[in-house]
Amino acid sequence: MQRLIQDIRTQTFSKIYLLCGEEDYLRQQYKDNIVNALLPERDSMNRSDYSGNKIPIKEVIDLAQTLPFLSERRVILIHESGFFKDSVSDEFVDYMNQIPDSTYFVFSEKQVDKRSKLFKAVKKNGYVCEFEKQSQETLTKWVLGIIKREGKQITNQGLDAFFDRVGNSMTMIQTELSKLLAYTLERNIIEIQDVEAICVEQIQNRIFDMINHVAKRQQKEALKLYYDLLALKEPPMKILSLLTRQFHMLYQVKRLRERGFDAKIIAKNIGVADFIVSKYIMQAQMFKANELRTAFEECVQAEEDIKTGKIPDLIAVELLLFERSQLTNV
C-alpha cells in the first residue's frame, strides 16, 4: 500500500496496477485513489470501465491503442473479470508487455491465481498490491479512531459486541458504525445496548450458533435458527454453503490444534482474523476430528444431491441438521 501512496504523491505511475485480495473496502478505496490520480474524475472521455467475465478482449486492446483525447493519459479499469483465475488469451497476456506510453491499466480482483500467465506478466510490467483481511488490532484502532473523531467513546463490552456482530469486513464495519454513531447522536458514550439495538447480526454468527446447538444435540434450537434464516429470505443453498465452510474450518482448526499450533498460527493457516480463531478453537473442542470431517463430507454430499435433483434444497439442509444434531458426541 505504501507504494501506491508514494506513486500518487510523486505522480510517478506504473503502466499496470493489480489490486487484489479479500478486503474489499481497502481495495475499493485505493482503486478510486489511483484512478483519480491518473485521470481527473470529470474526464469520462479517457476512462473506460469493464466488469464481469464477458469482457471483449479485442475491444479492450483496440481501446488501449487509441490515443487519449486532450489528455496525457487513457485509463482502463477492469473489475472482477476472472482473468487471473481462468485462462485468458495469449494475445492479452502478451499485450501487457507492449502497452502504449499513454495507456494505463487498473485491475481490481478479489481472487487471483499467482501461477497464471497474466499475473506474472502484470507483476513483471506493473505493480501488484494485495489487500488481506486486517488484524483485530488494526480494526480496533480504526474503529476507535473514527469514534474518537466523532467526540465519542465506546465501552469495552460495547466494542466486543460490535465486532462479534459485525465481523472483520471493513465495508460492513463502516456501514454498521455509521448507523451506530447516528443512533447515539445525542450521547457521548456508546453502550452494549446500543450495539444490540442497531447493529445487524451477520448470518455467519447464526451459523456459528447453529453448529453450537448441533454439537450439544439441541435439535429443536438448531432447526429454529434454520427456520429463522429462511424467514429472513436466506436461500437454503447459501446456508448450506456456510455450514460446509464452517465445518471445514473447524476440522482444520481441530487438526492444527492437535499438532500443537497456537491461535496466531492457526489464524494464518485458515485465513481468518485473530479474534475469530479463538471462537473456532472453542467450538472445535466440542467435536471429535472425525465428526467434523464427516459433517463436512455430508454437507458436500448434500450439495451434490441438490444439484443433481435428488432432493430439494430446503429439505436437504433440514435433514442434515436433524441428523447431525441427533448424533451422540463422546
What is the molecular shape?
globular
**Main pleated-sheet profile:** 5 strands, parallel
Number of helices: 16
The radius of gyration is 24 Å
How many separate structural domains?
3
What is the element string, with H for helices and E for strands?
HEHEHEHEHEHEHHEHHHHHHHH
Quaternary structure of the protein: single chain
The CATH superfamily of the largest domain bears the name P-loop containing nucleotide triphosphate hydrolases
Query: How many angstroms does the end-to-end distance come to?
Result: 49 Å
CATH topology of the largest domain: Rossmann fold
Question: Given this structure, which CATH class of the largest domain is correct?
Answer: Alpha Beta
Structural class by secondary-structure content? alpha/beta
The assigned CATH architecture of the largest domain is 3-Layer(aba) Sandwich
SS elements, strand count: 7
Regions with little confidence, pLDDT below 50 for 5+ residues? none
Helix fraction, binned, reads 55-70%
Strand order of the largest sheet: 2-3-4-1-5
